[in-house]
Amino acid sequence: MRAEDDFTRRAGALLRAAANDLKRDDENAERELGLEKGSFAEFAAGTRPVTWELMRRAAEVWPLNERDLLPGHDDCPAGVRVTRHKESVASGRVLSRGGEPYYEYRDTAMSRIASYRPEWIRMLRVVEDDDPDNPLVQWNRGHLLYQFTYFIGPVNYYYRWNGVSHCVPMDTGDSVWGLPFAPHSFTSRSATEPACILALTYGGSLLGDAQRELAVLGNATTRALAVPLEGAAHRPGAVIRSFMDAGAVTVAELADRTGLTRERAEELAGGAVHPGPEELDLLADALGVSVRDLLPPRTGAADGVSVQFARDARSWVWPDEGAPAYRMTRLAGDPLHPHTSALQVDVLADGAERSAPLTTYQHQYLYVLGAEPVTLSWEFGGRRVEETLAPGDSAYVRPQVPVTFAAAEEGRRAQILLLRISGSVTPEVRYAVGTMAAGGVDRYVAEDRLWYS
Fold first, then answer.
1. Low-confidence ranges of the chain (pLDDT < 50)
2. Closest by alpha carbon to 368, among 311, 319, 418?
3. Is this model's pTM higher than 0.85 or not?
4. Segment holding 406, helix H or strand E
5. Cα dihedral sign for 71, 77, 82, 86?
């Protein structure tokens, strides 16, 4: 199917799903949207393209946003999207800070399907010390996206948290993960050695519908909904109290449902103490939720960042010691984002037949490090494809597409940076899809019928 035909079909499916949700049959939809008789079925079936004017009209007369009717573009119909080094070089541009050239940026592989934004960045400012207050350092104001950074060469990493500035000297193989809106910067410690970074930024669940909804609700509501994970405002019972408010449950009612004393229920609801394991089971049952819903995430970040030096990184072979295809090295990450994984992959297998497939539910970004090419193989849509990636080439891989890596030249060990993120398909979505009635998955992906016969 051509990309434009697939887009038209999915746009029609969203229109049909919206009408079903609002309990509009074809006749009522045509009357309210000002369409000619018989045309709504054509739009919904994808035989007639949904127009911008139709989306605008639907958002005007129905409680929808235009975004609800906009399908995503599929720019990766082969399962993998490759960006060659020469394409990255062609995208290069120099940005100045303080009136002087500061960074050279280059695009690397990205896709409309995934939310990450990867850049190759070369440091043009050279410093001779590790002083975070060096006047040659030009700071940014921070940005919305989380950032994973992989360092190549002698790079100084600067970050600021709660008004305190830090500088960490980094070298090849070091990595860092950072929180949104924290000011940061990078410089080189050498005028002769290459110094650059691979900066992979992503929004996770902060982007998309959540950001748009909170933008409408406003600053005060957003601050009230925020649940801190550290500091004086962090209270263990904040989530418990949220579920109590949602169900209009009083402390007395909570005590009655759980069998806890009134005093203990008040302590837990007040948030000053952590519930024990048995209490968590009682609270979850009383509030009609899962225990996991009452457990706040944790973060290992210090001053907004998690730093992983190459010398301290954990490594192992995969899939097993007897027939190792790869050596994996764990790079920077944080428990706050358990569905984000960063790995340095050393390819040990010479041929594809000795390699082992890697498959994940996450979106994948890969970049060929070092000086050796690598053979990338994958299967998608019943086809097996093989490409040789040169140093500096990069690629995007769709979820659930099995890929293998092998040395392109016998005896030469290629090295790859592999970043994986979960995208919008959260565990909650996966559980919800897994509990649908028979036939529900196909209709969820693309609704193709009126909700009644």
1. none
2. 418
3. yes
4. strand 403-407
5. negative
